[in-house]
């Protein structure tokens, strides 16, 4: 069960942002064993908002991503690994007309590399991701979750996207357990499915639906829902230095 925006949600929100902002077309460079399926989801998301997928480069595990990035236009990059943040930084610095959209979890896992690669801020406004989290190191946070996170994690260097994800997930699990008279894996799953959507502080999760509850088919296949999170915003990497976000409509 996902507690963060799913990949499909991120594609959808970013596609909506592109459709509202500029339209036109976008490229994709995807390094994954499921690259073809990801490209298809991205293509359909883009088409929903009048944006076409101009090209999709599907790579195997050992292939270099940066070798396939366009020199201009918008490109979705999936499958980042160690060293890619620096390569992306050099690419956007060399090509002022390119904008790179990355998956938030990959950005979070490589956050230290991104910070080092973009330490002077150049080009950081052209690396973009979608997230439901508040800013992880806002010194004057408006978000209740961010305020509690800052109080719990007192060292600024320890406040990262990944640690905030863990903090928010822990808050959610604590809330769920506090409402259960008996704890088990089944009871925990039922908590989410019975409540459909769960709010903790200023975070909202769901909706969730158990596929077994679907009356349309005997198996219930295709009827389950796991939308991960809502209130998703589109942010540039430059938010690392200036905690402001550009909101995008929800899917």
Automatic annotation (TrEMBL):
Keywords: Receptor. InterPro entries: GRESAG4.1/3_peripasmic_2, Peripla_BP_I. Residues 3-238 form the Receptor-type adenylate cyclase GRESAG 4.1/3 periplasmic binding protein-like domain. Pfam families: Peripla_BP_A-cyclase. It comes from the Eukaryota. This is Putative receptor-type adenylate cyclase. It comes from Trypanosoma cruzi.
């Amino acid at each position: 069960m996902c507690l963060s925006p799913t990949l499909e949600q991120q594609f959808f929100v970013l596609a909506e942002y592109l459709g509202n902002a500029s339209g036109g077309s976008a490229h994709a460079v995807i390094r994954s064993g499921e690259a073809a399926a990801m490209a298809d989801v991205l293509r359909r998301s883009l088409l929903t908002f009048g944006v076409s997928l101009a090209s999709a480069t599907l790579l195997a595990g050992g292939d270099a991503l940066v070798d396939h990035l366009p020199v201009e236009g918008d490109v979705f990059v999936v499958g980042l690994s160690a060293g890619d943040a620096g390569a992306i930084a050099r690419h956007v610095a060399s090509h002022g007309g390119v904008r790179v959209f990355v998956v938030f979890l990959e950005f979070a896992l490589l956050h230290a590399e991104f910070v080092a690669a973009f330490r002077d801020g150049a080009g950081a406004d052209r690396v973009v991701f979608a997230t439901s989290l508040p800013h992880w190191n806002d010194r004057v946070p408006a978000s209740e979750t961010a305020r509690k996170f800052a109080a719990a994690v007192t060292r600024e260097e320890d406040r990262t996207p990944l640690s905030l994800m863990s903090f928010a997930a822990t808050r959610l699990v604590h809330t769920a357990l506090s409402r259960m008279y008996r704890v088990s894996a089944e009871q925990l799953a039922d908590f989410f499915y019975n409540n459909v959507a769960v709010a903790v502080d200023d975070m909202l999760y769901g909706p969730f639906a158990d596929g077994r509850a679907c009356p349309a088919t005997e198996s219930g296949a295709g009827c389950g829902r796991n939308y991960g999170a809502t209130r998703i915003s589109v942010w540039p990497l430059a938010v690392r230095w200036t905690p402001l976000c550009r909101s995008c409509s929800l899917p």
